[in-house]
Amino acid sequence: MSFYEIAKADDIPEGTMKAVSIQDKELIVINYEGNYYAINRMCTHMSGDLSKGKLEGKIIICPRHGSRFDVTTGKSISGPRIGFLKLKTKDEPNYQIKIENDVIKIDI
Prior knowledge:
mainly beta, elongated
């Protein structure tokens, strides 16, 4: 286990997210109801940038094709919708977060 500092807790207010790069990984860190979660930044469907997506509670919606992910688990809620097609998508990896002295740290 290697925890890396990624932000101060004040940098990510409740209900928001922040894109971060650490150890060659592109991630987003989300503050949902005062708890912090981290998943991969790029959608598992066609690499849409989730940091540019819409956050609705604990669900993030990919801006490219509308795939939805639960930010607390990384689980795919629904795949992309392209016309009449409803496709499946893979879950997003998620990462362990801890807070020490108001600093957010992530395990990579």
